[in-house]
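Let us begin with a simple case.
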Amino acid sequence: MANSPSRYLIPSRDHRVEEVIQKSRFITFGAHAASAVSAHAFINGVRGDFPDATHHCWAFLAGPPGDTAAIGMSDDGEPHGTAGRPMLTALLHGGVGEIVAVCVRYYGGTKLGTGGLGRAYSGGVKLLLESLPTEERVDRISLRIGVEYGAFDALLRMLPEFEAIVKEQAFGELVELRIAIPVEYAESVPEAVASITEGRGTVTPL
């Protein structure tokens, strides 16, 4: 994706939902997956926890919501296109990034048909997303700010406006702070520092 969002929702912890559809048991698991490697590790973990399941279908989106640069899916023995693709489609439209979903199915003896399977697997992901715990992922950059002591209090009051995280402080001829800020404030922070220091402050990207 050419212009990836600098902040978006990701799973904050592993989650599972379960439903029974025409005697088949569907257990859908979701987790954070920042890469294909971490997605496959989670998939293999679920497969190991439920070795007797009829199918272990899965899909993952290892990037921002809706991004197709790093995706994967598997029908795991279900008819082609009835599991992995519906699961991936639900993930791509779910508004959450960096996520893997695995749906474990225990066959109950009643065939659902291709349409029924697609609805069951996509529905499991949608149900998962409805109650999935999430947190905001924020792309940050690091800056070193140097100000005179007289501007230190004003700087501390200013930083929360830019969601700054103070990583380090040093007190010498100047007060120096190493901070992390969301990338969208990359231009605003130097301007604000210049304003409160009358141009005498320094801002250095790290």
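The second case is a distinct protein. As before, the sequence precedes its structure tokens.
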Amino acid sequence: MSEAALPASPIGGSSPAAAHAPHAAQGKGKQSQFRLIAACSLGNALEMYDFTVYSFFSLLIGKLFFPSDSPYGSLLLAVATFGIGFVMRPLGGVIIGNYADRKGRKAAMTLTIGLMVLGTLCIAFAPPYASAGVFGSLMILAGRLLQGFSLGGEVGAATSMLMEAGGVKGRGFRVSWQLASQGVSALLGALTGAALYAALPQASLESWGWRLPFLLGLLIAPVGLYIRAHLEETHVAESHESSPIGRLLRNHGGLVLKGILATTAGTATMYLVVFFMPTYMIRVLHMPPSLSLLSGCVTGITLFAVSLVAGRLADRLPNRKPLVIGSLLFSVVAVGPVFWLISHYPSVPLVLALSALLTASVNIGTTPMFLMLLEMLPAGVRASGISVIYSVGVTIFGGSSQFIVTWLLAKTDNPLSPAFYMMACGLLSLGALLSLRERKAG
């Protein structure tokens, strides 16, 4: 891989070590793009599967581990535990992102898989409240915290590697696989959930069936470790007295803040439309679980396809910012009518079609936006920067979204509650993006 094939920072200077970073992967020649994408994206998809399948089974988990007399009480406690995993994301983003900038992307990505496995084990083997009391609830909590810490560092390391490894050409398409892999996660989780709800009686689901998706998620251990062990490193650590995270906050704090706000619309769409919609369809629209989980399949496929299209567009457009802003404007205007329609005319085909529309409208601009942020960050702080931007944004606006919307639904009984939250997040993202100046690393 030639030096011209990797990004040079458009902000600030590059140290001599940074200038030689491209040679980290040169020893064995240019690594296969297929292997690179598989290693970064398949591992991320499997990790996101573990992290998000909890959302699809939140009603059942709430009943088994967080009993309550209130109809919404168990669900509130379950989604609060789902959200608590996000609290660890910023810490994981800081520690693992810093590690990725110091020791390399490959080492960090191997670490995240091990941590995710530990978290999944805690959830898969947690005894229910009826037999173990609060101990089972605490095991669920511990598993969520470990999963959150792991994912906090996964995104920055893997996305940075996808950007750096193949040169400028096709950079947007490679990065788009990070988001596309999350669509695969949603699809896998929804298919698993739908199959279990359709095949097993309620008693079997409650006694052992709900554990199967988490046991399936343990496949990340052999698969993820194997494919990532054969990656070539893309980043040689720079010699600096201060840590990467310190330099990031000192020199690029404004960009980090704008990046956090810019991610809010995509985050809200992901966690409300892709992952919370099955719960919304069951609780608010009173649809059967097996049918409601189809929404996860449809939005997962939509997210996968639209992300790859967006990556190709990001590579071909001379300016990406208009596409990002246009997608946000459309989603802010459309989300209200979408939820009004599905709450007043609750048919499965309509819900699926409009959920796909919202997913597509936001995510056509998400990959170009992340590529803009990646190119604005120097290589020596890139993994830390993306980890902090993504994990903090997801923690504040994603991890809390299901709890806030569930609380609003319980208090107001207004089926448009998700739309109000998503509109607010969209406006925040729009304001942040308008203040960003697009720069391209060469």
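Residues 134-165 form the longest helix (32 residues). The radius of gyration is 21 Å.
Keep these points in mind for the review questions at the end of the chapter.
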